Amino acid sequence: MEHGNRTALVTGGARGIGLEICRQLADRGLRILVGARRWGAAEEACRAIGPAALPLALDVASAKSVAEAVREAGELTGGIDVLVNNAGASLDGDLRPPYLDEEILRTTLDTNLAGAWRMAEAVVPGMVEVGYGRVVNVTSSYGSLALIDSGRHPAYRISKTALNALTRMLAAELAGTGVLVNAADPGWTRSGMGGPAAPRGPEEGADTPVWLATLPDGDGTTGGLFAERKPLPW
Q: Where is this region: Disordered (predicted)?
């Protein structure tokens, strides 16, 4: 199959949108590394996905965990071709600016921004070395400066705005290397974070991240923010 020799690592891959991203990538012939903070959750997800999936204990908020997981991934598969930074935290509750909870802000940024940055630092050099890579940062329209219309979920919004900036910077730095870097907004999706009232199922939410993760050779799409496979304003 087209992607049969490729390996994808999905952070936060044991449930919700992450699990569905894993399923859809496996259906396209990729070998899947399911990253989750709890080994048991990753193992259970792999049973649901099938033999193409391997569990990986991974906490993106821990530099030590990231280094150990990426080293193990290399031993298991030989390298990572696709990185989907899906792990995320939304802790704001009803908090709105100007009020600030510094612990919530630090924890949110450490997962949503620094977590993706740690993963890129650990994985991208190997992609550059072989001249191929796809990095997908799962973000939100809440992080779009052009679309901000309220102060709801302020730490979450700011973390995703910063993640969008990281996407742009990585794409610029990696231009011409064969590594494409994009951000995907899955939309309001039924998941642990999105809740049961969301109008979109995980299958719909996973579609754009999977599309970006499997862009074919010769497709120069990089440095973009997409929802439903269409560009969104930054």
A: 188-207
Please indicate whether residue 99 is annotated as part of the active site.
no
Q: Is 16 left (phi over 0), alpha (psi -120 to 50) or beta?
A: left
* pLDDT in the model for residue 199: 60
Measured CA to CA, the distance from residue 180 to residue 224 in angstroms comes to: 10
- Determine the length of the chain: 234
Nearest to 232 by CA among 197, 187, 188: 187
Q: What is the DSSP string of 21-45?
A: HHHHHHHTT-EEEEEESSHHHHHHH
Taking the complete model, does pTM exceed 0.70, yes or no? yes
Largest CA distance in the chain: 52
Find the catalytic residue in 99, 132, 142, 156. 156
Averaged pLDDT for residues 40-65: 98
Strand bridging mode 179-184 / 225-227 = parallel
Return d(Cα 80, Cα 124) in angstroms, integer. 9
DSSP string covering 58-73, please? --TT-HHHHHHHHHHH
Average pLDDT for 48-56: 97
The token pair that represents 129 in the structure block? 């070395």
Q: Count other Cβ atoms within 10 Å, centred on residue 94.
A: 7
Cβ–Cβ < 8 Å for 58, 74: no
Phi then psi for residue 226, to 5 deg, are -130, 145
